[in-house]
Design a protein that fits this description.
This protein has 8 helices and 5 strands, in the order ααβββααααααββ. The protein is of the alpha+beta class. It folds into 2 domains: 141 residues, Orthogonal Bundle (Arc Repressor Mutant, subunit A), CATH 1.10.10.2910; 47 residues. The strands form 2 sheets. Strands 1-3-2 form a 3-stranded mixed beta sheet, covered by helices on one side. Strands 4-5 form a two-stranded antiparallel sheet. Helix 3 crosses helix 5 and helix 7 packs across helix 8. The longest helix has 20 residues.
Length: 217
């Protein structure tokens, strides 16, 4: 990952991103729209102009967020990461056995959960239309959407493509994401045809929670 000076991180970075969230129940489409604005604002706040979004600042860069990488056996099979509250702080766990690009996508995904954590019960109240499984799946899809826009901004992907970098794996290397994530992004932007759907994130976990939803160890 590109190095980033933690001293350059605004102390109210999370609050600035949270202020962009309308404090009311949002539709799925509205939620996606908000994530695009938040992803662009985050890059602007950190003055990031490179293709690869630096994420190292998340490790120790936010006073109330702790990031840990843990082995795959701590999760259910296929799980990439999770976010919870513990002792008044946000605890982000990332599966260390996944590839570098996959871990970056997971971290960006979990950052979205940290940003929206205080308002989850309000802003997602209408999602799923009473179907709990669909409700949860839509939230995960929104978090993936945020990660995609943060790590692979449309304008930068288009610039790279039109400059002649038209191989998904070459672009994945440029943006420091997985090949699967880049192929999905290129499809969404209309540069390539339909690709096989790929599960790039799972939230099932073997970790235990207390009555307040905090992780117990």
């Amino acid at each position: 990952m590109t190095k980033n000076n933690n001293n350059s991180i605004p102390p109210d970075l999370l609050e600035q991103l949270r202020r962009l969230i309308p404090k009311r129940p949002l539709t799925y489409a509205e939620s996606l729209s908000v994530t695009r604005v938040q992803a662009a604002r985050l890059r602007k706040l950190l003055a990031v102009t490179t293709a690869a979004m630096p994420l190292r600042w998340l490790v120790g860069g936010l006073h109330d967020v702790e990031v840990r990488t843990v082995p795959a056996h701590a999760f259910e099979e296929g799980m990439s990461g999770m976010t919870a509250r513990k002792n008044g702080r946000y605890l982000v766990l990332v599966n260390r056995n996944n590839s570098y690009g996959h871990r970056r996508f997971t971290l960006a995904h979990e950052l979205y959960h940290v940003i929206t954590y205080p308002y989850v019960s309000l802003i997602y109240a209408r999602l799923g239309h009473g179907d709990a499984e669909r409700h949860d799946a839509q939230i995960e899809s929104i978090a993936n959407y945020f990660a995609a826009y943060l790590l692979m901004p449309a304008a930068l992907v288009k610039r790279a493509w039109t400059s002649g970098i038209q191989d998904a794996y070459a672009l994945a290397g440029l943006f420091e994401v997985s090949g699967a994530a880049m192929r999905i992004r290129l499809e969404a932007l209309g540069f390539i045809g339909k690709v096989r759907p790929t599960e790039i994130y799972f939230r099932r976990t073997k970790l235990r929670f207390d009555a307040h939803g905090a992780v117990t160890f």
